[in-house]
Design brief:
heterodimer; A: 279 residues; mainly alpha; MetI-like fold; B: 350 residues; alpha+beta; 6-stranded mixed sheet; 8 helices; elongated; binds adenosine-5'-triphosphate; binds magnesium ion; transport (chain A); Maltose/maltodextrin transport system permease protein MalG (chain A)
């Protein structure tokens, strides 16, 4: 009994430490977003200061407003998510249900796409997009994001589809449903948790992406991750504005995280413990 | 409307790789008939049903429904309803939505769906549970929901794969009776898979007894019981199963326990035969062949006696009280009409 309590205390303090290490930079950045530029640079750091929304006002409504960048990020992320899901759902279903040649290797292909260092493929991607004239276009950047998100989404969804009993689909066929109707009415409602998790991951990956965005976009397509550059110049770095931008960029991530929290936790366990995550 | 639900399976073969799950099945099921596919585990009953349903394709052979070749047709084009062993209810839909699903797929007008759902649910007595989800039902209620979903569309053929095997013994008996009544009242052709010979005997108008991908015998349960046409069927039908003794024939009879016992069939003397006698057909007769009582299984109103006759085991049903004691010596005899004879090499009935 005593050992149990000790273990719990140890566990709590270790995880508390990790949480602190993880949360501190975010907390610091948020704090800076509410400071004036002078307060940010003050030494020793000021913990007590008069909070101001000036930084937010400037980055939203000032001459270098990031609102167009937020819109750009939304277009890219939502576009990537929609195209990914429309293609990934039928593909994952097929992969889970049909005897497709090469099925065994598809899992490795997914891992491979996730392991490749992006720097290694960025030049070929750049050349391809340049040749078809899609540099700095939405379709261009979405296409590039698809090459990562699609395999990942399929791989994630397959495990959900594989968990569903065959007999339920067969019952639907006998009840007169077509394959597509079965997918829509019987299968998808039962894997909606998995679909939600996949949507969140795909959206967030697209939203947070930086490296490809820097190289493959420019003036038309300019997501919020790049817009940070607006506040970094040779002469100076506008720390509090930078912090305000990152706070605004984090906002959708946090909102999405809270909405999908239940599904995400379940979704992560499904991968680990088969079937454990479904109701 | 009449003569709807005629099923013909012609030379159905199903191979999984080199393994032959079905080795050429021929069955004809008449409209309105309650037909059972009976056999031990792995004998190919479910495979046959799935091929009939259109969920699997046969390797060769033809399937005809009402005279029309449907071998290559999709499950949904066959106008068949099915109850799965696992029930396969749609967990995200309510009972009412589950039952309505086949009607929706058949594009039944909205106004007709609700009354049809209510009627089907009432037939299986779950009309008070329509708003529940399958997860909130007991096993027996889920089974009824699956039944309601199957009967709501008035399909021409009703397939059931061991629908009672997940119910407890009491509920199984009660549901068995209701199932039979339901099928009678609907007048629909039913094909029923079971490995429980008692279920097949009580429910079926006719049955096919499977063994290792082949059909041993097709017939009315009473006929199959009275005259099993091979050793496997004899051993499978009846509870407890038939006694099978390997012995030799004599002029006009067989040797049992060293004695000549007359039989009805004409046999040449001196050939090897397998003699089959049902436990209920063993007669206790002081002038008969001596046996020793090894074990007495008291069933309450009768008992199953495990006897040894000249060193070979023999089971008998005994319903006179008081029951004999274990170790006691008794004597049995066999009437010629109760003796089934089989060829030990071919297994066929003689
Ligand atoms: N996909 C498959 N691949 C290989 N063999 C299979 C496959 N499906 C079924 N079989 C084999 O076919 C045979 C018949 O199976 P089937 O399911 O029809 O048996 P059954 O009579 O319904 O048995 P049970 O009473 O256990 O349900 C079995 O030996 C089984 O192992
Ligand atoms: Mg089976």
């Amino acid at each position: 009994m005593k050992g149990h309590k000790l273990r719990l205390a140890l566990l709590l303090s270790v995880s508390g430490l990790f949480l602190l290490a993880w949360i501190f930079p975010i907390f610091w950045s948020l704090l800076n977003a509410f400071k004036s530029e002078q307060d940010v640079l003050a030494y020793p750091p000021k913990l007590i200061f008069s909070p101001t929304l000036a930084a937010f006002r400037d980055v939203l409504f000032g001459p270098t407003s990031i609102v167009p960048n937020l819109v750009s990020s939304f277009i890219i992320s939502i576009g990537t998510t929609i195209v990914t899901m429309v293609l990934a759902i039928p593909a994952a279903y097929a992969l889970a249900r049909l005897r497709v040649p090469g099925k065994k290797w598809s899992g490795f292909y997914v891992l491979a796409t996730q392991m490749l260092p992006p720097v290694g493929i960025i030049i070929p991607y750049f050349l391809i997009l340049r040749d078809i004239g899609w540099i700095d276009t939405y379709q261009g950047i979405i296409l590039i994001y698809l090459s990562f998100s699609l395999p990942f989404a399929i791989w994630l969804l397959v495990s959900y589809f594989e968990d569903l009993p065959f007999e339920m689909e067969e019952a639907a066929f006998i009840d007169g449903a077509s394959r597509l109707m079965t997918l829509w009415r019987i299968i998808l409602p039962q894997v909606r948790g998995g679909v939600a998790v996949t949507v969140v991951f795909v959206f967030l990956n697209a939203w947070n992406e930086f490296l490809f965005a820097v190289v493959l976009s420019g003036n038309v397509v300019r997501p919020v991750t790049i817009s940070m550059f607006n506040f970094v110049s040779v002469e100076q770095t506008l720390w509090s504005k930078l912090a305000a931008v990152s706070a605004l960029a984090m906002l959708p991530v946090i909102i999405l995280g809270i909405i999908a929290q239940k599904h995400i936790v379940k979704g992560l366990t499904v991968g680990a413990v088969k079937g454990g995550g479904r109701r | 409307m009449t003569a709807r639900g005629l099923v013909q399976l012609e030379k159905i073969v199903k191979k999984h790789g080199s393994f032959e799950a079905l080795k050429g099945i021929d069955i004809e099921i008449r409209p309105g008939e309650f037909f059972a596919l009976l056999g031990p585990s792995g004998s190919g009953k479910s495979t046959t049903l799935r091929i009939l349903a259109g969920l699997d394709a046969p390797t060769s052979g033809r399937i005809l429904l009402d005279g029309k070749d449907v071998t290559g047709a999709d499950a949904r084009a066959r106008d068949i309803a099915m109850v799965f062993q696992s029930y396969a209810l749609y967990p995200h839909m309510t009972v009412a939505e589950n039952i309505a699903f086949p009607l929706e797929m058949a594009k039944t007008p909205k106004a007709e769906i609700a009354p049809a759902v209510r009627e089907a649910a009432a037939k299986v007595k779950i009309d008070h549970l329509l708003d529940r989800k399958p997860g909130q039902l007991s096993g027996g209620q889920q089974q009824r929901c699956a039944l309601a979903r199957a009967i709501v569309r008035k399909a021409r053929l009703f397939l059931l794969d061991e629908p009672l095997s997940n119910l407890d013994a009491m509920l199984r008996l009660a549901t068995r009776v209701e199932l039979k009544k339901l099928q009678r009242s609907l007048g629909v052709t039913a094909v029923y898979v079971t490995h429980d010979q008692e279920e097949a005997m009580t429910l079926a108008d006719r049955m096919a007894v499977f063994r290792e991908g082949e059909i041993c015998q097709i017939g009315r349960p009473a006929d199959v019981f009275a005259a099993p046409n091979c050793i496997e069927v004899a051993a499978f039908i009846g509870s407890p199963p038939m006694n099978l003794l390997t012995t030799r024939s004599t002029a006009g009879g067989v040797l049992i326990g060293g004695r000549h016992v007359p039989v009805a069939a004409s046999l040449e003397a001196g050939r090897a035969v397998v003699v089959g006698v049902r436990p209920s057909a063993v007669r206790f007769d002081p002038a008969g062949i001596p046996v020793t009582v090894e074990v007495v299984e008291n069933l309450g109103d009768a008992a199953i006696l495990d006897l040894t006759l000249d060193g070979t085991p023999l089971r008998a049903r005994y319903d006179r009280f008081p029951l004999p004691r274990e170790g006691e010596t008794m004597a049995v005899s066999f009437a010629p009409e109760d003796i089934h004879l089989f060829d030990p090499t071919t297994g066929r009935r003689i």
